[in-house]
UniProtKB/TrEMBL annotation:
<dbReference type="InterPro" id="IPR008909">
    <property type="entry name" value="DALR_anticod-bd"/>
</dbReference>
<dbReference type="InterPro" id="IPR001278">
    <property type="entry name" value="Arg-tRNA-ligase"/>
</dbReference>
<dbReference type="InterPro" id="IPR009080">
    <property type="entry name" value="tRNAsynth_Ia_anticodon-bd"/>
</dbReference>
<dbReference type="GO" id="GO:0004814">
    <property type="term" value="F:arginine-tRNA ligase activity"/>
</dbReference>
<dbReference type="InterPro" id="IPR036695">
    <property type="entry name" value="Arg-tRNA-synth_N_sf"/>
</dbReference>
<dbReference type="GO" id="GO:0006420">
    <property type="term" value="P:arginyl-tRNA aminoacylation"/>
</dbReference>
<dbReference type="Pfam" id="PF05746">
    <property type="entry name" value="DALR_1"/>
</dbReference>
<dbReference type="InterPro" id="IPR005148">
    <property type="entry name" value="Arg-tRNA-synth_N"/>
</dbReference>
<dbReference type="Pfam" id="PF03485">
    <property type="entry name" value="Arg_tRNA_synt_N"/>
</dbReference>
<dbReference type="GO" id="GO:0005524">
    <property type="term" value="F:ATP binding"/>
</dbReference>
<keyword id="KW-0547">Nucleotide-binding</keyword>
<feature type="domain" description="DALR anticodon binding">
    <location>
        <begin position="209"/>
        <end position="348"/>
    </location>
</feature>
<protein>
    <recommendedName>
        <fullName>arginine--tRNA ligase</fullName>
        <ecNumber>6.1.1.19</ecNumber>
    </recommendedName>
</protein>
<keyword id="KW-0067">ATP-binding</keyword>
<keyword id="KW-0436">Ligase</keyword>
<dbReference type="GO" id="GO:0005737">
    <property type="term" value="C:cytoplasm"/>
</dbReference>
<feature type="domain" description="Arginyl tRNA synthetase N-terminal">
    <location>
        <begin position="4"/>
        <end position="92"/>
    </location>
</feature>
Amino acid sequence: MTPVELSRTVLRAVRRAVDAGELSVVVPERAVVTVPGPGGAGDYATNIALQLARPAGQPPLKVAEVLRPHLAGAEGVTGVEITGPGFLNISLDRAAASTALVRRIRREGIRYGHTGALTGQVYVLRVPYEVRAEVIADVLARIVGSQGGRVEVEHREPANVRPVPAPEDPTPLGPDAARWALLHPAPHDRPRVTADHLVQRESNPLFRVRYAHARTRATVRNAADLGFSAEPGEPTEPGVPIAQAAQAAPATPSGVPATLLPLLADYPRLLATAAPLPRPDGIGTPGRLARQLVAVADATLDLLPATLPRGDEKPSAAHRARLALAEAAGTVLAGGLSLLGIDAPDHL
């Protein structure tokens, strides 16, 4: 269950409480779901009870107590705990959640994270005649399009997309490296247009992203040569919560990086953040996407050594599950690079 899906689950719990006459509120359009803060518990937390307390005319703790059984009964939820002034802390079935996530990514392919949430929405971006602004506007159009919306780009003032300009023409880097050089930094940061973006080594974030994708494809081919294929399942040892694992050790005892599943689960939410156009938080989405792909790539490269059997070891259910996870990670890398307008080769 991704944070976006869990947010919908929280809203359905509110709707059930309203329909049962236990709360008298207008069901909000969104519920914020985050990693639990200090003193929290479980995999995710929501402040929906605090959000609804005033319109409901009840203390946040009372609202949380009303919502708790409706949320605890949702599919995939194994427990709900109330902490602090009324935060609902949600524990998920880790095995079911990770398996469902990998199955979904493999089913949806590079369209994972695409929705129709912005259908009918048209955003007008006014950009100066400057290469970085135009590239960012192009990627925003791709991301908004992935959510069902449409972007119209106009070259006129006053501009509402005005990142720090490129210090020089990035064309000599080639189309992929040039786009990465302009997109990877935050819009308010000065981009580096240097040959560093062309080096084929780990110090180059673009290389790591493309290399991780190519490695996942090679691993799938190697697994086929060994006579086994991917099968989604539980690739990690029990006991590490899905979201809090991102703050834990780099890898679980099974060799699966703790950050990978949370990063894959968070991908749809990241694409949805392009919606606040033309505010700066929406304009920064291309850079955040590029940087998240780097994090996915690094976690994927940590996963791959544990994906194939070693020596005389026979393929196990864990190997098949890790292969499915690696394949899903490669799919997210390919989909993200596509939205950035960058090629994702199968061989490097």
